[in-house]
Amino acid sequence: MTPKMLLLPILLPAALAVLFLVIPRGVKLLREALALAGSAVLLYYGFVLFSLKSLELRLPWLGMGIDFELRLYHFSSFILLALAGFLLLITLFSTVKMKDAARVREYYAYIFLAAAFANGAVLADNFVPLIFFWEGLLISLYGLITIGGRPTSNRTAVKALLINGFCDFSLIMGIGILWAQTGTLTMSEVSVEPTGLAAAAFIMMMIGALGKAGAMPFHTWIPDAAVDAPVGFMAFLPAAFEKLLGIYLLARITLDFFALKPHSTLSIVLMTIGAVTIVLAVLMAFIQKDFKRLLSFHAVSQVGYMVLGIGTAVPFGIAGGLFHMINNAIYKSGLFLTAGSVEHRAGTTELSKLGGLRKEMPLTAFGFTVCALAISGLWPLNGFVSKEMVFHGALETGYTVFAIAAWLGAIFTFASFLKTGHSVFFGERSQAIPEVKESPAPVVLPILVLAGLCITFGVYNKLPLNLFIQPILEGHVEAGAHLDFTSHALDLFNPIALISLGCLALAFLLHTYGFLKSGRKPYLASEPVHNLPGVHKLYDLAEARVFDFYEQGVKFLHGLSTVLYKTVDRPIDFVYEKIVTVAGERFTGILKKAHNGHYANYLAWCLAGLVVVAGAIGLLLK
Amino acid sequence: MSVENIVLLTIFVPIIGSFAIPLASLLSRSSRSVWAILVSSVTAVLPLTLIPFALQGGEQVVRLNLALGLDFVLVIDALAIFMAGVSSFVGCLIVVYSVGYIHNEEHQSEYYLMVLLFIGSMMGLVFSGNLIFIYLFWEIIAISCWRLIGFYRKPDFVIKADKAFLVTFFGAVVMLLGFIQIYGLTNTFDITAMRGTLIPGSAVLLILFGMFSKSATIPLHTWLPDAGVAPTTVTALLHAAVLVKIGVYAFARLFLYTFRVPDDWQTIIPILVVVSSLVSAGAAAVENDIKRILAYSTVSQIGYIFLGFSMANPAGVSGSLLFILMHGLAKAGLFLCAGIVIHATHEKDIRQTGGLIKTMPVTAVAFLVCAFSVIGLPPFGGFFSKFLVIMGTVQAGEIWLAGAALFIAVLTMYYLMKVFSLVFLGEAKHPAPEGTKSMVYVVAALAVLSLAAGLFAAYPMKLVNIATAQMSWWLR
Prior knowledge:
- The complex is a heterodimer.
- By secondary structure, chain A is mainly α.
- Chain A contains 22 helices and two strands.
- Helices cover 73% and strands 3% of the residues of chain A.
- Helix content of chain B is 75%, strand content 3%.
């Protein structure tokens, strides 16, 4: 096993991406076979590299300390493995869902390009390769959203590009400050106290990580993309890849580059961002009436738990945040795929048109149920374990308010999934859509695999916790401290777990009340909350994108540009166009009068000019 | 062939070749085109043969003594070779593109003569080691630009050409006064004899007039968007690749390689150029004429190059040198894509176009790739240059300027994506096919080069690092 092997997870998908662009559109079988084989190979290598644990590659690159450094260790190998797993499942799903899509060649190319860049970003051990791969993902992001092909797709794609671009530029700034402070770009050598300028670097890099993960306020493109982009993209980038990468970097920032201390201001900042993201996004999700859009707000809300967990800066919370990262990627990807499966057969994802599909699509319904219960944090699924860990961590810091926010999130999460499940799979069979069949195996299989993982990671939670999560925290807890997060992972009989279950019971009551109150229409079950006095107005403003900092930001950019153009650029041009020319004409007018044809006059002019020129030169030569 | 002879050929092949254009046109139109392409490709290849010499860290000064201290001095180092290679290469691509673009126009002999003279004078300027010769080539370029901008001969176009000429000429003359002031201090125009000399602030100011007017920096910039009345090939050559790089090249050659600039100017210049960059990015976001947008975008990007150089640290200087290459490729690509669009639809207003990706797929993709490179997205070349400039700015402690530069990058992304969306996406208003093959090949080549320059950034970076090391006497 040579270190050069580390290039394979980057070069193989990149080469495949180029190949997919070349293969003619009609040659479906070859393309699909290559995509599946390629991702299978990557998954195999994921296991091989995971078992290796430690490998370093260093190639000279641009000089000045900018080397192409890759480093495999337990954290990066874990993320690498997870990425490869999701790639295989999404590819499998896409073979059916994207079969007849207009830009299928580009679709596969972008998917594999994203895989190449994501693998590179995870393996990078130098900030320049990191930002190179990290920012390169924007190309895939932009391309994949435009493939949605709706009239607003391009607008959303540009929005995603600008928001993520802003966050990535912020990350660049953070890296720059860190480089200036530490004098090195090698990631594994950087460790500073987040004070003074380094605190600014921390915030800047944090924005980069949070932007990728889609935390508030950098989330607003995700709900738009849910409608405008292919559903495979949603399950792939926003649900899985970007969460893994964003949280990976956030964990590296808080654990490695800066040693974040519990109770520090920065820790509270992070926890606040997490808590606000949980609550606001879930409240938005709760009232959505489109399956995909509803899921996309949950994709944002769940990031809050991870950020909150990592922000606690206590080992238990961090472990919870990281475990939640992988759990969320599993069930959220699964949920988007169920939405894709329903869309594939029913042709719509609007909740009001769907209903009672469980008989016709039993496997999809089963997968949905498991994933939905997992995201809601029901015992004994994986979401329960990681959420409990986050609750414990939040309480350990002593700031109860953050735990309360997390519980509030849990109530509305469960309520909105009760609403969704009730509207789509359970309840009465809708008359709006014709009879449907279960989706074909390549669509259902990934859903079932992900649902299976939800159960496995919940019931046998010791397995992922010991195998994946615990090694990450080794060396980051106080020496001699007990490093075991599995002791009360599935323990139902402690006050925290009982409060969580109480929240779920509340959610059930909330849903039942809403269902009965709104004329037994499940998709309207959120209306009683939606219509609360005052709340409705806020919801309307939010839906009108008033709180969307992108919309306000674009207005600001346009306004600033107009001001600069009108107050600086045009006045300068006015000087050239009007003042200089008029002054020139006046001046030559005076000179004209001096031209009276007398020889002596001209001689005098020449002499005077000579004196002036000589004087000027003499002055300069002094 | 010796290094010295190669450099002399690089300068004189295009200059003499340009005067042979009218002769070639006597034979036939096609022989004129062939001759133009031949001369420009020879000019493009010659500097490339010097790269091994540069990579070994070679530096050579050639001196031919003439009267009055006006020695003909050639400085052959990595900086000059890099700059000559970039400009002549892009120049050659533009000549190839011209064959398709202007083949229906009148005055083609003058056109090719001026373009080749332009390229030749550029080579002369790049290798010159004497202030007077720098000025001389500087003005020859101004004259050929003047003719080229007014190529279409319409009265208001000619006025714009006059404006460009007068502004740059004014700047150059003021710069000449600065040169004379320096002569008063050192009694020489030979820059190799003056390395490390501290020059007074007044001389810096006078010379900056020249640089800022040629490199279209606020407040001497508005001639550049107005010069968009020229044929697109010329705007690509002027705005993007070569002409506007003269000022930044002179900055590197004079203010970094040769002189020591007083400290207060070292704080003022970065602020000036960032303001220039911001204002012009704002103007680009407001304008609706595609060529004016791209021209303002050039003004904005030039600000980054000045910024990196004025930081005078390895990351900044290397970044700016790399920027010259990356911006030259990408911006020339953007202009030539715009040229294809204008040629086919006769429409410059981005609000009147749309949906062209269906009929012009290659142009659209090339435009997007070049736009990504200008914005600074990896894996395209523009990423590395912008990244390094910003790193250099941060390292010099100018955190706020670096922040402003990143903000400008966001603004760049905003307006370039706006242009792409309005021109190539949405509803088709003037469906038109792509132009002749030579035009499409050239934009495709520029897009591929922008990508390749990013993927293989380590290769130009080697040369750039050597150039930086040779220039930076103050770091030794």
